């Protein structure tokens, strides 16, 4: 069980808030980290793993033109994924992950390029990451960074 995931869920519960996630390169690891915590169902609404690029558009509402021009590894895609899953699952907060875990570059982006999307009551943002290591390390690093990002927004004074 991730200590960070437990802290995120506790902060959400204290605020009476809910969370949804949209995942691409993490392929369900972010949702798994959350549901590993006992009691997660009190605040975790669910997740969409939109691994295929076309699902980002058809399920999450990511702009098809954006995907056609830039591909799935783009900060606006991360923001739109977060907004889409927030709306789809009716959550106050949403996280999204998109990027290149490897072993090969994708959409002209090198391995380790990741964008996190965060949508919440005060708006939406995208955070770029440049991670190194193998595929497993990049995927787990993306999960850790996403949880830390949300925790910082939920507990700005800590």
Q: What class, by secondary structure content? A: alpha/beta
Spans of 5+ residues with little confidence (pLDDT < 50)? none
Largest sheet strand order? 2-1-3-4-5
CATH classification class = Alpha Beta
The name of the CATH architecture is Alpha-Beta Complex
User: CATH topology, which one?
Assistant: Maf protein
Radius of gyration: 14 Å
Helix content: 40-55%
User: Which overall shape is indicated by the principal axes computed on the Cα atoms?
Assistant: globular
CA(first)-CA(last) distance = 21 Å
Strand content: 15-25%
Order of helices and strands: HEHEHHHEEEH
Query: Helix count?
Result: 6
CATH superfamily: CinA-like
Main sheet: strands, sense, barrel: 5 strands, mixed
Structurally, how many domains make up the residues? 1
Oligomer: single chain
**Can you count the beta strands?**
5
Estimate the mean pLDDT confidence. Answer: 97
Can you offer a commentary on this structure?
The structure is a single chain. The chain has a single domain (1-157), classed as Maf protein. α1 runs parallel beside α6. The chain is of the alpha/beta class and 158 residues long. The chain has helices at residues 3-15, 29-35, 53-58, 64-70, 75-89, 135-154; strands spanning 19-23, 44-49, 93-99, 113-120, 123-130. The model has no long low-confidence stretch (mean pLDDT 97). The radius of gyration is 14 Å and the shape is globular.
């Amino acid at each position: 069980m991730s200590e960070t995931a437990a802290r995120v869920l506790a902060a959400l519960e204290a605020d009476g808030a809910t969370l949804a996630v949209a995942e691409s390169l993490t392929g369900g690891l972010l949702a798994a980290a959350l549901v590993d915590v006992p009691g997660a169902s009190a605040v975790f609404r669910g997740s969409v793993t939109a691994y295929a690029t076309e699902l980002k558009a058809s399920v999450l509402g990511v702009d098809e033109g954006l995907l056609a021009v830039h591909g799935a590894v783009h900060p606006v895609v991360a923001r739109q994924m977060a907004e889409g899953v927030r709306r789809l699952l009716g959550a106050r907060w949403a996280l999204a992950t998109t990027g290149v875990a490897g072993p090969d570059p994708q959409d002209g982006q090198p391995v380790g390029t990741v964008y996190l999307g965060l949508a919440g009551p005060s708006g939406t943002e995208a955070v770029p990451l440049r991670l190194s290591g193998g595929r497993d390390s990049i995927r787990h690093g993306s999960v850790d960074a996403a949880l830390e990002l949300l925790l910082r927004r939920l507990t700005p004074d800590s």
